[in-house]
Please model this.
Amino acid sequence: MTPLFLTWQLPGASHANGAAQAGKKGIQSGESRLRLYDLRSWVIVNNEVRMLVYPKAGVSHIMQSITKTTHRATPPTYQYRWIRSSLECAELVWFMERFPVQAGLVSRPEQWPWSSAHTE
Model:
């Protein structure tokens, strides 16, 4: 299965407004409840979502399903690309999980609550 990288914007610009929590819930339900993909890695910083998945459905169906709770009026504009190698996949995971650290939001990836690197 070829990995897929997706990115889009959540409505609003703050984690405090609940958009990040709704985005996290949508991402996780896309894997566990809807079974649209196998989730490899994800991160939400400010209002930008990035995720890496092994899709089991088409891109438009995935996006419609996981963003319907965060984008009630109009669906988001999203970008995607297929990942060509295991090295590219590993680099994306590394970058996504460390993005909150590089942005100065936390000191370690596992501290960021809106990321697959987060630990309770």
Summary: The chain has a mean pLDDT of 90. The CA atoms of residues 13 and 47 lie 5 Å apart.
